[in-house]
Amino acid sequence: MKTTLLISLGLVFTSVIASPIQPAADKKLVCYYGSWAVYRPGNGKFDVENIDPFACTHIIYGFVGLGPTNEILMARDPAKRRTFVNSVVPFLQKENFDGFDMDWEYPANREGAIPEDRENFILLLRELRAELQPHGYLLTAAVSAGVKTIETAYDIPAVSELLDFINVMAYDFHGAWENFTGHHSPLGGNPAIDYGDNIMLNSKYAIQYWLDNGAAPEKLILGVGTYGRGFLLDDTAQTGLYAPAQQPLPAGPYTRQEGFWGYNEGRYINELGLGGGMIWSIETDDFLGLCHSDEKFKISKTLFRALNGEYPPTPPPTTQDPSISTLPTTTQTPTASPPPPSDVCQHVGLNPDPTNSCSAVYYACVADGSSWTVYPGRCGAGTIFHPVNLNCDFPENVPERVTFLCDIRKANDISKMPKVILESSDHENFPVDVDIAKMSTTIKTMLEDLGVNSEDGNEEKIPLPNVRGEILKLVIQWATQHREDPPLPEDDDSREKRTDDISQWDQDFLKVEQAILFDLILAANYLDIKGLLDVTCKTVANMIKGKTPEEIRRTFNIKNDFTPAEEEQIRKENEWCEEK
């Protein structure tokens, strides 16, 4: 039997691949692969080559996305739905995937949703099924384990009829978004302490609800998390489940699941005759064998053994049973070389800051045809990006032999620089060097009013009620990159305004969704960061340069509410400014 490779759509769509020499398994073990793990630092980095083809019966590659609301609009419109469905088979054929996984979280339950999206989801599945089945492609979906969501999101008998199997996401029942501790992936409940809706937040309750409402047991795949969720207790004297906890556990250097995952979920899957188990996600298992030196992928393989008996040994590479037919490998040699190195991107993956090798800033570079797509990042407080190992580390761990790349003294000075804490509108806190914070005239004025100067280190908290955390993080990244820049000249109305002088770093940094770009402009204006406001406005100017009014409306989703007569009147009034 082969390992099946699916691709997941966000909506999410996922692919599945099968191992060509893996013995047949009665129960499926479906493994989602979070492809972004290739950008994690150090031992957290996980690439396709790290996947053990014998650890799973199906691998789902995540994700391909349509955007936060586009999937909803597509599913509602028969013409758009048909266009989308028609594009799926050619994509699967081109990329050698074996199927398509839907990860719409969740129909009729997200921003912009309407109750009719429950039926629109079924219409989309039905059309996909009709298109995929003649080609032998699988159609699967990741679905909710929350009963209140299931009730409004899914026509369970129809979902069961149309899908080859159903991945029930029985994890994240609890987490730091609540104000108490909780097991995020419990098998069963605890009547002694569970209360209210918490009674329903466990795997057994969710699976039984799917079964009771018409799901075929052999199609249900129970999802299990290969990661943990942590909390900071409000009071160390109050511990255990449902103990008060307002804050999450601080993030580590990379995501890793420690410990041993038990057999109880596997036994439960077999007892109910379910189709198998699903893990989220394979790259958060102990894939390097750091926690269990005797075996890699300990959690995944333990579940495989619980479902199917002994884990199959890896066969010798030089022999093969001729009676076993194998499928051609789906791995292809790349047909195109990566783009030439740029100032920021010397190679695919993580790259150090080219302007300061002693910086906490790094860049994840993805080859996109003949150009680079760049995702800026920043190491945690007190650490820098190691210019040789290409991970975040403490300055003292950078060896003397690379001091030509990184001045250790400077790194230590940076880590000890006085800080202020910037608090976003959604109450995220960002410790920032005082000199970086003062690049904002607004913050500089606040600090001066508080009597804080560049030598102070009292970590004063500055609330910024008009900037949410996601945007503030980007502003800080931009300011860190430009901390050494000379101040911009004063505005001169007589000087020609240019929009073609945006640096390559800024061009890459501002390759973001339109809504994010506009939020950055608003933040730069509110914070009074002249350089950021200048470059974001120039970016928008370049987006509309040379476009007709109608093209500009389409670009920015602006509804035209002028009548033809009003448009003509406006045109006449502004003839003087048109290019001759």
TrEMBL record:
Q: Which Pfam family, just one, is annotated for this protein?
A: Glyco_hydro_18
Q: Where is the composition biased (Low complexity)?
A: 322-335
| PROSITE patterns linked | CHIT_BIND_II, GH18_1, GH18_2
Keyword Endoplasmic reticulum part of the UniProt annotation: no
Q: Where is this region: Disordered?
A: 308-342
Spell out the molecular function terms from Gene Ontology: chitin binding; chitinase activity
In this protein, which residues make up the domain named Chitin-binding type-2?
342-408
GO terms for biological process? carbohydrate metabolic process; chitin catabolic process; ubiquitin-dependent protein catabolic process
Ranges of residues in domain GH18: 1-310
Disulfide bond is among the record's keywords: yes
Signal sequence extent? 1-18
**SUPFAM superfamilies, sorted:** (Trans)glycosidases, Chitinase insertion domain, Invertebrate chitin-binding proteins, POZ domain, Skp1 dimerisation domain-like
Extract the PANTHER family matched here: CHITINASE (PTHR11177), CHITINASE 4-RELATED (PTHR11177:SF360)
Q: Name the family.
A: Belongs to the SKP1 family.
Protein name, UniProt field: Acidic mammalian chitinase
Write down the species.
Answer: Orchesella cincta (Springtail)
